[in-house]
Design a protein that fits this description.
The protein has two helices and six strands. It is of the alpha+beta class. It has a domain at 134-189: Roll (Nucleotide Exchange Factor Grpe, Chain A, domain 2).
Length: 189
């Protein structure tokens, strides 16, 4: 009986150990599953973080592009408005030049008035030059349809065919853009 009891005890101990071993395997499997789960979650978090960082960078690039485009559009709008204003100012300059010519040829105009007109004319030319306005060269130059507007063709022994013979109205550049083409007479070919 002692022996039987011992065997039963051993079986019981053995089954407890097996249970313990099984539990250990289960715990170990559970721990491994938990570690794998944590690792998978960590990878998911990392992937999500990378996606969010990528989206953030794209949004920042979009904002920078919008700022750049907006700045460019504002500069173009200012340039267009200035160009438009300067082109509306040119007839005033033309009339001032006519007034000066008329005052120079009239002896009844006091010298002080003529000097005043000259000062106004110089000041206006100076302001236009500061804004990038310059006169288009016309007389004696080859006709250029980009900056000359041919009003008529004439015969001339003084100019080569295709050259501008006479400027009827001054033309002006605004920086590199034609503000107003020069009205000219061109030597017939």
């Amino acid at each position: 009986m002692g022996r039987k009891k011992r065997t039963e005890q051993q079986d019981k101990n053995h089954s407890e150990q097996e249970g313990t071993v099984e539990e250990q395997f289960a715990d170990q499997a559970e721990n491994e599953t938990g570690e794998e789960r944590e690792e998978a979650e960590g990878e998911n978090w990392e992937q999500e973080r990378e996606e969010l960082m990528d989206r953030l960078k794209r949004k920042q690039a979009e904002m920078e592009n919008l700022r750049r485009i907006s700045k460019k559009e504002q500069a173009e709008a200012r340039e267009y408005a200035l160009h438009d204003f300067l082109s509306r100012l040119l007839p005033v300059l033309d009339n001032l030049e006519r007034a000066l010519e008329s005052a120079r040829s009239d002896d009844n105009i006091p010298e002080a008035h003529l000097d005043g007109l000259k000062m106004i004319y110089r000041q206006m030319i100076q302001i236009l030059e500061q804004e990038g306005v310059s006169a288009i060269e016309a007389e004696g130059t080859p006709f250029d349809p980009h900056c000359h507007h041919a009003v008529m063709e004439v015969e001339s022994d003084q100019q080569e065919p295709g050259n501008v013979v006479e400027e009827m109205q001054k033309g002006y550049w605004h920086r590199e853009r034609v503000l107003r083409p020069a009205m000219v007479k061109v030597c017939r070919e």
